[in-house]
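User: Show me a protein chain along with its predicted structure.
Assistant: Here is one chain, sequence first, then structure tokens.
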Amino acid sequence: MDNSEYYSLRDKVTKELSNQVRYVPIEERKDTGVLPVELLSSISHGKFQFNWRGVDVMKDPLDLAIVQQLLWELKPRTVIEFGAYKGGSALWTADMLKMFGCKSRVISVDIDLSLLDPEAKKSTDVEFIEGDLMQVKTIFPVEFLKTLEHPWFLVEDCHVNLEGILEHFDHFTEPGDYICVEDTNPLIPGVIGQGLIKELGYTFWGPEKLNDLKNFFSGRSQRYMVDQRYTDMFGYNATWNMNGFLKRM
């Protein structure tokens, strides 16, 4: 393939993307995806082994690719991650943004920071906050949120008080901000390690978190829309985060 063919392919990709409807209300999205259980299980085999700088990240390759592209496009000034675990995800995010030349503030909160890996602890690019997200207004008071520069990239991965967290931050988001609600795909493994450790078998995560997502964003279609460029990058809802990439309009 010579250079002219590459340019032609690039033009076709650009035209294809421009013809697609990018932002839609969550009510217009189906609660289905193209990834079958067998493939989700197989991908999980690698997901639960993947680390960044030796720190567990707990993210699949599809969403790592999607999020890095979103970060490049958005270039957020503030990232808030709800759920830190060992800190690998926050560390990866901060490193991506630093590599992109973004001056971003990365904050990660968890109820128990004793699990943080030493590599994450020594990072000067991530602020880790210990606190109970059931008391989200105490952790993120109004005056503090008003100091955080936009655009924001909010990542919900704590699996508690989803609607309460979104309700609190909804008052402070601005057009252009993004919210990513993780693990909304009902078919992903319900127990950490399933797909990697055969003895654990495989049970479904279930629809509870997806339903919470829909409950909050339904009726807010003029305020938040699903970004189909990201949810469907590898196929319809080919992501752990089914209908979970939303832009504040």
